[in-house]
Amino acid sequence: MLGRPLLERVQDLIPLAGECGMSAAQLAIAWVLRQPGVSSVVAGATRPEQVTENAAASGRTLDDAALKRVDEVLGDLVDRDHGKTAQMMAVKPSWTRTTP
What we know:
Layout: H1 4-12, H2 14-19, H3 24-33, H4 48-56, H5 64-74, H6 83-89
């Protein structure tokens, strides 16, 4: 669940998104794709226009300066231990299909 401090910092990113010619959602997707070890994003949507907006983010990139600004705004609210991603996504034996 997103806490108030994180939501407040996300609001601080909206002007940067505009400067980059993106929506806040597109900025978020572009930022996630610049993280080490990330090759894709699964973004949720509740309306068709959000799907279109998210898809438009696929060709967008953040330059190093914008990436640094996002990192500065988010600060310590982001867990930067990229090793956790691999651990959480590891396939557990109980998740695999067995053939009789």
